[in-house]
Design brief:
A hairpin with a 3-residue loop joins β11 and β12. The strands form five sheets. Strands 1-5-4-7-3-8 form a six-stranded mixed β-sheet. A four-stranded antiparallel β-sheet has the order 9-10-11-12. A four-stranded antiparallel β-sheet has the order 13-14-15-16. The longest helix has 18 residues. α3 packs across α5. By secondary structure, it is an alpha+beta fold. Helices cover about 25% and strands about 25% of the residues. The chain has nine helices and 20 strands. It starts with 7 loop residues before the first strand and ends with a strand. The protein folds into two domains: about 170 residues, Peptidoglycan recognition protein-like (Lysozyme-like, 3-Layer(aba) Sandwich), CATH 3.40.80; about 160 residues, no CATH class.
Length: about 350
């Protein structure tokens, strides 16, 4: 028997439901929220009488909430409510790309498990009905109701949804394929797909272990991707990576990347440089110029002033020792410097 995926289930039924009036359940349907709520928050909304909407399940980040008993009809798909079970990915959008969906692969597996368990309970077919839809009993989405049943106009879960992964997990939980094949794609591969528009072809084969034993990395034509269990997989473009390398990579003052980079424009929208956050600082680099990082008290003061759009502009040096004994710190910017003194005071030099 395949192992149940790890999730926490919370059952609290609300009033937004109706009798099925003897209808046979024919379809198990997935939905997007078109918002960024937690599973608990979306379930609470489904229990609010004024909302006039509900799902049998809301799922996000390993949390499953059940605001409607599957023996009754939720209010999700208009005239199809009596013969469907409906589950929503909380914090999701129909506009998501495949790469964005794959970041929620754990929840896709959970959805498949719930669908298979309900199929066994109600005698529902476990056929996954993906676009282009063929009308019939099975597991599908809200757009199936629109395109195959001609009810309503919704198009979630969208073109980017990885139906192959949903079908994979359904096959695992029905026993059609061995359970050991449940292997989500490596996080670096998922990040590479997310960054496919700019990162280019993979250069390294597989993943390389970092010297500290904590992280892994892979090189691509226009950037690198680093991964740790704490930070996940984050891509660094070559433009920033050159400075990151000068600072001794993850062993240097910055540590591992924690947020994807952003291209910074000036007031007229012209792209002038990149910024990316790391564990112990934020790296800035104008195009064609050296890069520098900000952190600590000086970085916090610069941030309060408005970052690079504030009165001091972009950093022009890294933080350096200051004072006769070197106990202080100074960092220069385009329009002045910030000096930290051991007393805790910050001096502004224009």
């Amino acid at each position: 028997m395949p192992t149940k995926p790890d999730y926490a289930e919370h059952v609290q039924f609300g009033p937004n439901n109706s009798p099925r009036h003897g209808a046979r359940i024919r379809n198990w349907l997935i939905h997007t929220e078109q918002g960024n709520a937690s599973a608990a928050a979306l379930a609470a909304y489904c229990r609010r009488p004024a909302s006039q909407v509900s799902y049998h399940y809301t799922v996000r980040d390993g949390e499953v909430h059940c605001p409607v008993d599957t023996d009754r009809a939720a209010w999700s798909v208009l005239d199809a409510n009596p013969y469907t079970i409906n589950a929503c990915f909380a914090g999701s959008y129909a506009e998501w790309t495949r790469a964005q969906w794959l970041e929620r692969e754990r929840d896709i597996a959970i959805m498949a498990w719930l669908a298979v368990q309900d199929a066994r309970k109600y005698g529902l077919a476990t056929v996954v009905i993906a676009p282009p839809y063929q009308r019939g009993d099975g597991i599908s989405d809200h757009r199936y109701v629109t395109d195959a049943l001609y009810i309503g106009t919704h198009t979630d879960v969208g073109d980017g949804f990885p139906w192959d992964r949903m079908r994979h997990y359904v096959d695992v939980y029905t026993g059609a394929i061995p359970a050991e094949t449940i292997t989500p794609p490596p996080a670096i591969d998922v990040e590479a797909e997310t960054a496919a528009a700019w990162i280019g072809e993979r250069i390294t084969t597989g993943e390389n272990e970092c010297p500290d034993g904590r992280g892994r990395w892979a090189q691509f034509a226009h950037g690198w991707i680093y991964w740790t269990p704490e930070t996940g997989a984050i891509a660094v473009p070559t433009h920033l990576f050159e400075t990151y390398a000068e600072l001794d990579y993850e062993a240097g003052p910055l540590g591992y990347p924690t947020v994807r980079h952003t291209v910074l424009p000036v007031g007229d929208g012209t792209k002038v440089g990149d910024v990316q956050a790391f564990e112990r600082g934020v790296l800035y680099r104008r195009f064609g110029e050296p890069g520098y990082y900000v952190h600590g008290v000086i970085g916090a003061r610069w941030a309060r002033e408005g970052y690079e759009e504030g009165p001091r502009g972009w950093p022009t040096s890294n933080e350096q020792p200051h004072g006769a004994d070197g106990a202080g710190r100074i960092q220069t910017f385009e329009h002045g410097a910030l000096v930290w003194h051991p007393t805790g005071a910050i001096e502004i030099r224009n």
